[in-house]
């Protein structure tokens, strides 16, 4: 496997802080997102590497392994286990032998001798579970409103996943067996996908409930009437009660966000009315408002 310099991909130094990594990732991910480069295969490949770089460098434990073992960082645990076990058994020939001054200049040769060519030695039969992968998937709020499928690319493989409606921002799901392959027939690792939800609507989401603000004119607020408002599932008609006060909040039951993995169940939509006062009154309108003001004691 060729060495990929994750620091170079994100355009940062090796002493970069966690905040530096986060800022660099967001900048590069926006620039090379496939949606912005639909016909550019190189941009798509680079976007995958950007995600891989962020996955490794934003995790302190993985970053430490990467800094130590380079391209073989995913096998760091196997190396450490094998190194420890070598101190407790004699070398009988044909196997990898360690010393405390092992400098790790070429871990690939080590893994080949340890796991690929030991010819029946005891360690050649040791099975190791593959490393877990972590990926981040960005969705618009409108995408999270409906169950849909997406294809993601992890370690060069296309994986088609079904995303249930109602997925939360920051929520993480596990795909068993989609991580790194095991060693010596060991089980594959798992793939963990965390979701970043971008609000591309005028609604505010809080769990399964949605919140919005709607302007109504003074005359509708005073006399009552009907208005059309937007919901995530389309427009609905509302009756406004006479003498509705500014800041009045109403609840539309079942017009909120889908409840995660619960078919047909939704939260509520809370609408706050803001009464808009008329401007640029005509002389006649001013006279009428003056007359109305005199009717009230």
Descriptive terms for the model:
3 domains; HSP40/DNAj peptide-binding domain; alpha+beta; four-stranded mixed β-sheet; Helix Hairpins
Description:
The strands form four sheets. Strands 6-7-11-10 form a four-stranded mixed β-sheet. Strands 1-5-4 form a three-stranded mixed β-sheet. A two-stranded antiparallel ribbon has the order 2-3. The chain folds into three domains: 6-125, Helix Hairpins (Orthogonal Bundle); 133-198, HSP40/DNAj peptide-binding domain; 204-295, HSP40/DNAj peptide-binding domain (Sandwich). Residues 88-106 and 114-124 have low confidence and may be disordered. Helix 2 packs antiparallel against helix 3. It contains nine helices and eleven strands. The chain starts with 5 loop residues before the first helix and ends with a helix. A hairpin with a 2-residue loop joins strand 2 (148-154) and strand 3. Helices cover 30% and strands 24% of the residues. With 297 residues, it is α+β, with helices and mostly antiparallel strands.
Q: Structural class, from secondary structure content? A: alpha+beta
For this structure, what is the CATH class of the largest domain?
A: Mainly Alpha
The level of helicity is: 25-40%
Total tally of structural domains:
3
What's the total count of β strands? 11
- End-to-end separation in angstroms reads 86 Å
User: Which H/E pattern describes the elements?
Assistant: HHHHHHEHEEEEEEHEEEEH
Widest beta sheet: strand line-up: 6-7-11-10
Indicate the overall shape.
elongated
Query: Which CATH architecture of the largest domain is right?
Result: Orthogonal Bundle
Radius of gyration over alpha carbons? 30 Å
The CATH topology annotation of the largest domain reads as: Helix Hairpins
What's the main sheet like?
4 strands, mixed
